[in-house]
Amino acid sequence: MTLHSLQNVQVKKSNGPHALHVAMIMDGNGRWARQRGLPHLAGHRQGAEALRSVLEVAHSIGIDYLTVYGFSSENWGRPAHEVSGLMQLLRVYLERESAKLHEAGLRFRVIGDRSRLDQKIIAMIAAIEERTARNSKLNFTVAISYGGRADILQAARSLAQQAAEGRLDPGMIDENLFSSHLATSNIPDPDLLIRTSGELRISNFLLWQSAYTELAFSDKLWPDFNGDDLQAIVAEFRERDRRFGC
Fold first, then answer.
1. What is the percent of the chain where pLDDT is above 90?
2. 246 near 212, Cβ under 8 Å?
3. Residues carrying an active site annotation
């Protein structure tokens, strides 16, 4: 299956909860490369192939929104050569995949602090977002230079500024209003969050949005993860009894 074939895939029905929004922490690229004696960036390149495999099956198993953690705000602290390599890989991915994403009917969006990105990358992201804005087959969001705490802080600052200027009564602030000021304001909260590589934490990803998200962890390193693994986890998720804190 290719990204192009997504346009003709029929969504499989299920009696269990429907995975409208799946979030993914794609962890393990570096370890995958080290285990094979390869450069660190080789793991990230293979990780990009794993992402393609996931995208090829996501809509066919009932996922309407897929959000992946591409580059965290903390990742800027990695060695300069690694960050530079990751940014180059991002440029290559955007150049290579933009037409395919559009032709497959995917809507592409980026959340996170773009101010630290190269101007060329910022322009490329904006162009792909505009090109795919009316697509609805799958809403594909990549978190780049993103941190959950920073997301919450910027929402709080925005609301505080409005209150200080007299444009907002603080007593009117509720969860819905607060959520509307987050980076994901037009994206539903994730139903399921998957992390690969056996690590059991969410690493500052979608903190507010994941309050009642179901969690799943895979021991596979991200470059070894594929669409079949995603399908198996989603099938297990659909058997869960979600209670949303009740």
1. 88
2. no
3. 27, 75
Segment 179-232, tens digit of pLDDT: 999 999 999 999 999 999 999 999 999 999 999 999 999 999 999 999 999 999
Return the exposure string of 113-149: e unless at least 16 CB atoms fall within 10 Å of the residue's CB, then b: beeebeeebeebbeebeeebeebebbbbbbbbbbbbe
Nearest alpha-carbon partner for 96 in 120, 122, 128: 128
- As given in the structure block, the two tokens for residue 107 are 């809507």
pLDDT value of residue 221 = 98
Distance of CA 47 to the CA centre of its chain: 14
What end-to-end distance do the CA atoms of the chain give, in Å? 41
Q: What is the mean pLDDT of the chain?
A: 92
Mode of pairing for the β-strands spanning 138-146 and 65-72: parallel
Does this model's pTM top 0.85? yes
- Cα dihedral 169, 171, 172, 175, rounded to 10, equals 130
Residues 6 or more apart whose CB falls under 8 angstroms from that of 145 comprise: 71, 72, 73, 75, 76, 112, 113, 114, 116, 117
Residue 202 is given by DSSP the state -
Using alpha carbons, list the distances in angstroms from residue 92 to 87, 95, 106, 124, 233.
Answer: 9, 5, 18, 11, 30
Alpha-carbon span 222 to 197, nearest angstrom: 6
Contact 23, 68 (CB under 8 A): yes
